[in-house]
Write a structure and sequence with these properties.
344 residues; alpha/beta; Rossmann fold; 2 domains; five-stranded parallel beta sheet; 11 strands; 34% helix; disordered C terminus
Length: 344
């Protein structure tokens, strides 16, 4: 055996860069000034003062809710509108932080986790929520907004942990202990805005955890928005009406799982693009939504035929079937059986 001592490896030896120890918790006066002088122009258009969504959100906040959740089926513009709302409510563009929840998202990703320091030792490190809380405290009373996309994709109560209780407006500015034993304060100038799909698996648990703390605003499919956007893209008025009629018919179906947002149809500017949209986007969506209801899928397919009528097909042999393409989907149409005399 060699008598040489084993040298402990450092992070630099392994090519690992330690997490930045300079955070909003340790800002020098100079660094704080740099943040305050940053470009305050938002990356999206702010909502006008008379916007209905802004009025609803402001009313909810005035009632004492900690924030709002924009709830609606896929394709209703939740993420876009949530971002515009966030930058409208925030004191300036530097006071908005965004995070997306997912199935594997945990407390350690959101509140506090362990990360190596410059010496290679692991230590508690504040994460997204704790950091924006501290930043909001440092810049009080400037309004800060945390935007959470897809909040229903994870176990919200587990991710927020102790902080869930202190989101309530009557418990703001109170110090409480988190898992490591360190303390955290949720300031009164922090607003949380989130989006969710009401059909996600975690929604039932989400409602129980957040219904007292967050106001929910429905983002519903809107035929008027679809008509306007397709018209702006140059689609012919007659074709726009065909697409919008299909869209409205789908919204009236009993199964809410097939209700989709207007964004799914924005590429339907003519028949050729509509067929591709059916192949690549609409058909997969409806097949998944109707996997236990074949009759519903057949009904939706018939409705779609009014948007993209099948091309004329050659007459089939007596008693045979002909496949009529619907976009890239073939729908079987049974032709009449030949008379008995002809079969003899």
């Amino acid at each position: 055996m060699t008598s040489n001592k084993i040298r402990p490896l450092k992070l630099d030896d392994l090519g690992i860069v330690p997490q930045e120890t300079l955070s909003v918790l340790d800002l020098t006066d100079e660094a704080a000034e740099l943040i305050s002088e940053a470009d305050s122009s938002p990356p999206v258009d702010k909502l006008p003062a008379a916007d209905e969504l802004l009025e609803k959100a402001q009313a909810a906040l005035d009632m004492g809710y900690a924030g709002v959740i924009l709830s609606g089926p896929p394709g209703t513009g939740k993420s876009v509108m949530a971002k515009r709302l966030a930058y409208t409510l925030a004191g300036d563009a530097t006071a908005v932080r965004t995070v997306q929840f997912h199935a594997s998202y945990q407390y350690e990703d959101f509140i506090e986790g362990y990360a190596p320091n410059a010496e290679g030792k692991f230590e508690p490190t504040k994460k997204t929520f704790a950091l924006i809380c501290q930043e909001a405290i440092n810049r009080h009373p400037l309004k800060h907004v945390l935007l959470i996309d897809e909040i229903s994709r994870c176990d919200v109560a587990r991710v927020f942990g102790e902080a869930l209780t202190y989101l309530e407006t009557d418990k703001r500015n109170q110090s409480f202990s988190i898992a490591s034993g360190r303390t955290l304060v949720v300031p009164d100038n922090l607003i949380v805005i989130a989006t969710m799909n009401p059909w996600d698996k975690g929604v039932d648990e989400l409602d129980v955890a957040l219904e007292r703390r967050f106001a929910q605003i429905d983002m519903l499919p809107d035929p008027a928005v679809l008509r306007k956007l397709l018209g702006d893209k140059g689609a012919a008025p007659e074709f726009v009406e065909r697409v919008a009629t299909f869209f409205e018919a789908v919204q009236k179906l009993d199964d809410e799982m097939v209700h989709l947002g207007h964004a799914y149809l924005l590429s339907c500017t003519d028949e050729a693009m509509a067929r591709k949209t059916w192949d690549f986007r609409l058909q997969p969506f409806f097949k998944k939504a109707c996997r236990l209801n074949k009759d519903m899928m057949a009904n939706i397919t018939r409705l779609w035929l009014k948007v993209t009528p099948p091309p004329a097909a050659a007459a089939p042999a007596a008693g045979g079937n002909v496949e009529v393409p619907v976009g890239g989907v073939a729908a079987e149409v049974q032709t009449a059986e030949p008379p008995a005399a002809a079969q003899a």
